[in-house]
Amino acid sequence: MRPFELTAPDTVEAALATEGTFLAGGTTLVDLMKLNVLTPQHVLDINALPLRGIDTSDGVRIGALERMSDIAKHPGVYPVIASALLQSASQQLRNMASIGGNLLQRTRCTYFRDVNTPCNKRNPGSGCSAISGINRMHAILGTSDSCVATHASDVAVALVALDAEITLASAAGTRTVKLDDFYRVPGDTPEVENDLRPGELITEIVVPELDWAQRSTYVKVRDRQSYEFALCSAAVALDIQDGRVADVRVAVGGVATKPWRLRAVEDALRGKPATVESFEEAATIAADGAKPLTHNSFKPALVRRTVVRALIEGSR
């Protein structure tokens, strides 16, 4: 880790007026600093900022500095959000990690984290080692010739499924962005992962009121049951009336370069009987457009099976 200057502003205004890299829980930033993947000269510890609180009176509003474990156990938080959080990382990390930091975490691609290997995300123009390398954990959706790294966050998948928005503050003011629109596919600029502008800070996450999201779930398929990133995951919320799917939200993770909303699957399900047969039929298009690599050719089938499993669990 290279030397850096650390300051701790105590107001949002002071933090936004100071140039530097924001530090909350530090569960991603500190790791990458130790590896010299990130080498900020000035780090701003923002833990004293008044960006906490969870309000479930009208949808769900979450301050960006709320810890993942506290959100997961808060009454009124939609089950799909709580489940995604509880299946993330370890209990110790969930106690430290902030929700805002989790949404901004960098990929766990081993080539990105190894400064001795080419990586377009870390060093634009150097190449993507994963395309011809070991790519079992990599993406099949939203990829490009420049990058096939998966997005790591579990809770981002649940929030994208629920049409969540984030509030971003800067010295110039605040703006609100749909989380689905905030994340970018790599294209020719994989180093640009999201729409976070210089000097901006996530201050709040807002999930619109959706009563039927109480019937929701998050299914995570991984190599082991704890402290492992997803091979594939699915976030599902279902509105079932008179045995039919009145409305539905579906997003998947572990298989795409950003949390991946499956709107075509949602369209295929609306109005259909809430049966395994309907779920299986709709899931046949869940991996449309996939571009499997040498070691992850199993993922299209896994996406379909994971979506079906999540729909079955969510319909109970």
TrEMBL record:
This is Xanthine dehydrogenase YagS FAD-binding subunit. Keywords: Oxidoreductase. Pfam families: CO_deh_flav_C, FAD_binding_5. InterPro entries: CO_DH_flav_C (IPR005107), CO_DH_flav_C_dom_sf (IPR036683), Diverse_Substr_Oxidored (IPR051312), FAD-bd_PCMH (IPR016166), FAD-bd_PCMH-like_sf (IPR036318), FAD-bd_PCMH_sub1 (IPR016167), FAD-bd_PCMH_sub2 (IPR016169), Mopterin_DH_FAD-bd (IPR002346). PANTHER family: OXIDOREDUCTASE, XANTHINE DEHYDROGENASE SUBUNIT C-RELATED. SUPFAM superfamilies: CO dehydrogenase flavoprotein C-terminal domain-like, FAD-binding/transporter-associated domain-like. Transmembrane segments: none annotated. GO terms for molecular function: FAD binding; oxidoreductase activity. Gene3D superfamilies: 3.30.465.10, CO dehydrogenase flavoprotein, C-terminal domain (3.30.390.50), Uridine Diphospho-n-acetylenolpyruvylglucosamine Reductase, domain 2 (3.30.43.10). It comes from Kibdelosporangium aridum. Residues 1-212 form the FAD-binding PCMH-type domain. It comes from the Bacteria.
